[in-house]
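Budget justification, computational time. The allocation requested in the original proposal was used primarily to generate structure tokens for proteins on the priority list. As evidence of use, we reproduce two of the resulting records. The first is shown immediately below.
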Amino acid sequence: MTTPAATAPQGENPYGIIQALQQGGLLAWTIFLILVIMSASSWYVLFVKLFEQQKIIRDGRRARSAFWQAGTLRDGAQKLEKNGAYRQIVDDGIVALEQHDKLTDPVDQHDWMLNSLARSQGAIASRLSNGLAWLATVGSTAPFVGLLGTVIGIYRALINIGLAGQASIDKVAGPVGESLIMTALGLAVAVPAVLAYNWLMRRNKSIIEELARFANDLHGYMVSGGAVKPQIVTAAARGGTAGAARPATPSGTTATGGAIGATNPGPKKV
């Protein structure tokens, strides 16, 4: 049996990854391709979820400012990104508010709106979690796929020792190198997947908390007939020249008794 060192061209590493895979045959190539697919798909999920999360975060900034400055809820919804998470919550809230008057059995408006907004938030949270299960699967199984390649490499090394009758380095270097490469590949695939999963889960938690705060503000505004709305930080306040704008009072005046300016009128009706 010819050794890798004997067949490799001058100056080329006879124990590289390609040479190890060629010695391992179809099984080694299959394991290697599985690891490559797992790695590529996990990176794809990471970038897709990051783009989706960043889109919701941008929409949240718009919801905290432009939405509450609109004249009506429908006008405020138009300022949000179409098919966005915050737009979905507002649209579902408006639909629930309109449906409440059509109910034949008396249902408290507070409970009806609360359940409707909670259902909307649940749908968004479910959509945000799509793909994360695959990252968890890759992170937990990739080391074992690499371990399978390690076992096969060690098995081939033992076969070479048995055929040669002695444990010479040229007989075992190739299979042992293949097993170590498979171990390293399994870890290289698993570690980024686990880190990406934990990072995306933490970002999802923050996004869901922001959505819950917005839905709570929207719920209070709707069930109060527009008398309750969140505080809105004006541009002057962000610049340090004034404090946060005061929330509108039920009578439509500020806490000092003056009329509310046009800066933050807030939605007055659906």
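The second record produced under the same allocation is shown here.
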Amino acid sequence: MTLLDTIIDEWAGITFPRPVVALGGFKPTPGCYWCGAETQAEAVCTCMRERLHWSRVIRLGAYEEPLSDCILGGKYAAWKDMLEHLGALLGAKIRGCVPPNSILVPVPMPPIRRYFRRINHAGVIAKQASLTSGIPIRRALWRKECMPQASKSASARTLLPRNSILLRPLAMIKGKNAILVDDVLTTGRTLEVAANKLKNAQVASVRVAVLAVTKMS
């Protein structure tokens, strides 16, 4: 948490450049269909599909500069313009590569954390991705208050409790092709918990759409 507080303090009061300027020459890069790892082309790498809890990963790129800095700015400094720009890029990549009857499901954020950060980053990304792709949003999940995953070690992240994410009443997602939307895929534990909740609600399939995938995924 100390590191996050430092990041927020450093960004307080800074006027950010236009998103396209901050991203520089960034262009989406290919990744493995199943785990999201960097690949030479949109294909499957050496990962084992049966270990994953979704059928595909759609991503913009690897979690490295300038993309990583832009995601951090959007997430911790409430840089909404950046999140909307990245969401539009993600929506363009989602469009045309998912089946009919699909819905976008943003990974939920605990209410208190959302209040202090002043932004729901996954919600902003999903909203813009929806506008770009034409795929509707369904806010089907709710999240309990718990320590942020970003403040934990990789091993601690894998211990996220199964009941930290819950299905909302009257979610009405049975038979839908769900696309979980989040900012970064690291260990995949948060997305795993969320995906399992959607499967319990009898969705037809689960895919993952993220802005970036870390090298350790």
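A brief technical remark on that second record: The two ends are 22 Å apart (CA to CA).
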